[in-house]
Amino acid sequence: VLFVGGFGVTPSTHKEGIAVYYHAGRRVLSLGYVPNSEAIKKEGVPAILATKAAAILEVLKAKGIPQVDVIAHSEGCMNATIAATQAGDRFRHFVFVAPPGMTGKESYMEILGRALQNMKYKKEQYANATEEVRQRWNNGSADIMQWVKGRGVIKGIIEATTPGRFEINDMVRALQEAGDRGAHGVSVVVGVDDKMVHMEKYQKKNATDLGVDGFYSVKGGHSELLVHPNQYAYLAESALKALEQKYRSERKKGSPEA
Asked: What's the whole-model pTM score?
């Protein structure tokens, strides 16, 4: 399993969630990004996302891994999707947790409004959280600030809005449609209180509209995979297992022996 974290958040901050995948019997690979890495240009794709997608492909190549399943969070869903459109044979199934860019592009002001709503929600949840949960939130916030500083504050803040201004729905649909008999299964997990994605639009769509196999509407906000890893990483791993079972069954039905 390749785990791809959200904007600025490092694998070490997700270590408890990664441990859940490991204890489920999966080999787990993850990666961080270098803030001052050379930008990669790809037509129609923001440079920061194209650069991170290229890093994913480079890691798979360097490790000699022929194919991976993906569990990704937030911006990481975009990075993994863009990478998969360039090397589809390197990827199998995808579980996207709180993915932006699947319900249409938004303006800077809309994204800013969502960020403010998310800050308010986080403040309310933080006030009643355990010390353990607060520390996870703090670690994630520290990672993001470190990334923004590494990119340059103005540039980093602008890049933080990129996921909301880029659309991946067509890419995701193309991946699923290209996955003849088991190549690319896709499931999405979204919290009902997620302020960073357009939950209202998600609720008006079904799995077919989104171009995915499964849609899980769950309790919580945008960062549950980080702050409650035992529950939400377990859910993500279970969603991946469901995709494996579904496509395994469909392959059997389509085999000459069936």
From this structure: 0.91
